Amino acid sequence: MSNKFDVVVIGAGPGGYIAAIRAAQLGLSVACIDAWEDVKGGPAPGGTCTNVGCIPSKALLQSSENFEQVSHHFDDHGIEVKGVSLKLDKMIGRKDTVVKQNNDGILYLFKKNKVKFFHGVGSFDGKAEDGWKVKVSGPSSEDLVARHVVVATGSAARELPGLPFDEKQILSNDGALNIGSVPKRLGVIGAGVIGLEMGSVWRRLGAEVTVLEAMPEFLGAVDQQVAKEALKVFTKQGLKIQTGVKIGEITKTARQITVPWTDDQGKEQKLVVDKLIVSIGRIPYTGGLDANKVELKLDDRGFIAVDDQCRTNLPNVWAVGDVVRGPMLAHKAEEEGVAVAERIAGQHGHVNFDTIPWVIYTSPEIAWVGKTEQQLKADGREYRSGSFPFMANGRARALGDTTGFVKVLADAKTDEVLGVHVIGPMASELIAEAVTIMEFKGASEDIARICHAHPTLSEAMKEAALAVDKRALNF
């Protein structure tokens, strides 16, 4: 049977397409189903990450950062620029080109690795004699049989009750990436990764941005020393951030949106904006799967229930990424996708949730891995801390970006690195060294003894590790 496969993956986001490629590398016959369409109705694999998440947001963050640099900071380097103007349509067009390049790249990788791609919605159609029936509805309508099924259908933006996304005035991450003109007043509900990144983009391009956050602490999941530094810097840049707020009934007209809110002192306030980004989290996407048809179990929050190996309650049915428990991160999904493919092939896949890095791509960037100081204190864990500011780093001075610091937390007795927290230039790249050290149960002394090139930003990591033992050399 030509439509019979060892593995059928439903969803071609980071978890799905990576699972499909790895399974094919291991000699399995693989099909991958994905319904995402480009503007012409063609296939656009890559999921939320590639189409309306990680990739396009980073493209706009880079473009808007370039605009801010030429508008406000080039003079510091002796470069005088006059008559700077913004061509927003070209900026959005560049973002779309980057997305298309990634879509095409995934299709190329499928072809290279002999993964059969089907464009459409994948759903369960019952049990087969030697596996599962999977139906493809859409441009590539087919009936498939799979020995193993990997569900990687991702997540969707959470709406505020009674305030659906129209992507014109009330925006999810999708609409926030495609605003036609820079709004004069922009509201953001939710000071998480998406809210801060999108708020930063439009603030740089000229919008007056106000961020409302329900939680009492800013970036509560982040090490609080980092969060306090971030709040100070973002406020200085022009973001208006309010925490501990309670949102009232939001109303909108054709011209504006009114957001009544109460501050943490009980004082009633009102925010009037032209557009409103709602970034209050994401929910697992299982629509179209026909999970009930095969009694695929979901938990009480709507996630597909899996064990620590990503197995569902059904034999040979697996699930990875945003649609299961754990952090909703593209790289977490990729690691699970690889691990599941290897488990299907009889190997022993590896995913360590304790060493998954987190990144917020604002300016300065924020990145961390492992435990925060508040978590270690709550756990009663004895630790030592060392930090090093970028203002004392030669490369950061040369770049003209000395905001922030690196902090290393290590066990007080064994010196094992328990957490690393970075706020500053290229934090997203620097955190990889910390992840590597922690994956091998390394000590702060290991980082301190490794020769780092000079001058580099990575020297701040070495100096922070030296500071754990109170022997930093340059501060």
TrEMBL record:
- Originating organism: Orrella marina
Q: Where is the FAD/NAD(P)-binding domain?
A: 5-337
Its required cofactor(s), as named, are:
FAD
User: Which BP terms does GO give this entry?
Assistant: 2-oxoglutarate metabolic process
Cystine connections: 49-54
Q: What class of enzyme is it?
A: oxidoreductase
Q: Which Enzyme Commission number(s) are on file for it?
A: 1.8.1.4
A molecular function (GO) held by this record is: flavin adenine dinucleotide binding
| Positions contributing to FAD binding | 58, 122, 153-155, 322, 328-331
**Cofactor note as given:** Binds 1 FAD per subunit.
Please tell me where this protein is predominantly located.
Answer: cytoplasm
Q: Subcellular location, in the record's words?
A: Cytoplasm
Q: What is this protein called?
A: Dihydrolipoyl dehydrogenase
Question: What GO cellular-component annotations does this UniProt entry give?
Answer: cytoplasm
UniProt xrefs under Pfam families: Pyr_redox_2, Pyr_redox_dim
